[in-house]
Design goal:
Strand content: 15-25%
CATH class of the largest domain: Alpha Beta
CATH topology of the largest domain: Rossmann fold
Number of helices: 12
Number of strands: 16
CATH architecture of the largest domain: 3-Layer(aba) Sandwich
Order of helices and strands: HEHEHHEHEHHEHHHHHEEEEEEEEEEE
Structural class: alpha/beta
Helix content: 25-40%
């Protein structure tokens, strides 16, 4: 690599994918039509932030934007955040005082024909008090037309939240929804390229090995928040060497980002499946493989079928074999050993479900996936 990256990356804002421009147009129409609320569905918040930024650029100047990025705090803290966002000092004020200030502010906005956008992030995690407050604000907006536009953002489970009993205004006024699509592979490459270019880290081909960006895209599912987390973790784990696909997988395991893959660098003929292998780091499932090879290598080497990137794992750590209908696990002289159900082994026949431990990873052998 021509330049050493810093320990923590600083990504530029995510660009709104072109196919999401339609979501922006629909949101603008809802705002200008005076709708009291709208819902934005999507994984991660880089896109939602980009959407909100684009929305505020295109609306009139007499619009105030209030951002509530954590809907889970105590009621007092939540109201302090909202009231501070509209320019008021909250020192020494109790919850009732803060609620009155917000009501007076909205009345002022109505009198002077100004609009307010209240953006609430992670609505699927919101507390009952926050949901009740939003329900009351939307109900008042439908009656008084204070110029308030409540923009709720979250993942697909938001739809379940909006169906909960006890929040009638949320249920009846949040039927306008836009969905944000994740990056396609080319857009993931462009997103990472913009970071590399902005941060002066050299050529992207010097920083990422072949297929590493594809691995980032596959594991992140094109969500920019997750892309950023993976790259940041890779840079911290290996600041002076190119990022490889196995390093991306190791970063995903460290971050507890689950992913499923059936892709192997096949070294032998594919045969009828003898079950599954579930790879875990701690309590989190990080990969699942069909055991459909005559022999399957486990280790850090590029020649291994299951690559586990960790210093406690040898390059060629262990091998699983199918011999005359039997399944065996063989340690290949690894430094830290191979364990089956807690016992260190050299050559062991697996007669049923078992837990194989190599380094910090636990691999569950399941003759049948339950």
């Amino acid at each position: 690599m021509s330049a050493q990256p810093s320990a923590v990356t600083s990504f530029p804002p995510a660009a709104l994918p072109r196919r999401n421009v339609g979501a922006l147009d629909r949101l603008l129409c809802a705002f200008r039509a005076g709708r009291p609320a709208a819902v934005v569905l999507g994984s991660g918040y880089k896109f939602t932030h980009a959407l909100l930024d684009e929305l505020t650029k295109q609306v009139e100047d007499d619009v105030d934007v209030v951002r509530l990025t954590d809907p889970k705090p105590e009621p007092l803290q939540c109201m302090q955040t909202i009231v501070q966002s509209i320019g008021f000092c909250t020192d020494g004020l109790d919850l009732t005082d803060l609620q009155q200030i917000l009501s007076m502010f909205l009345a002022y906005q109505r009198t002077h024909q100004r609009r307010t956008i209240l953006y609430v992030e992670s609505v699927h995690e919101a507390s009952a008090w926050t949901l009740e407050t939003l329900d009351q604000l939307i109900a008042k907006e439908t009656r008084r037309r204070n110029g308030l536009f409540v923009l709720l953002a979250g993942d697909r489970s938001v739809e379940q939240v909006l169906r909960r009993p006890g929040f009638p205004a949320l249920r009846s006024n949040c039927d306008f929804r836009v969905k944000l699509s994740a990056f396609e592979l080319g857009e993931t490459r462009e997103h990472i390229y913009r970071f590399v270019e902005a941060d002066g880290r050299g050529e992207i081909s010097e920083i990422f090995e072949f297929e590493a960006i594809t691995r980032v895209h596959d594991i992140s599912e094109g969500v920019p928040d997750t892309i950023n987390q993976l790259i940041d973790e890779c840079m911290k784990n290996s600041p002076e060497t190119p990022i490889s696909p196995s390093l991306v997988e190791y970063a995903a395991a460290q971050l507890r980002i689950p992913y499923v893959t059936d892709e192997f660098g096949l070294r032998s003929e594919t045969v009828a499946s003898s079950g599954w292998l579930e790879v875990r780091l701690g309590d989190e499932l990080v990969a699942r493989h069909a055991f459909d090879l005559e022999q399957l290598m486990i280790g850090r080497s590029a020649s291994c079928n299951i690559r586990l990137f960790a210093p406690t794992i040898s390059r060629e750590h262990a091998m699983m074999l199918k011999l005359q209908g039997n399944v065996k696990i063989v340690d290949l002289g690894s430094t830290n050993g191979t364990f089956v159900d807690g016992n260190r082994i050299d050559n062991f026949q697996l007669d049923g479900p078992a837990t194989i431990r190599v380094g910090d990873y636990a691999i569950a052998y399941l003759p049948e996936l339950h």
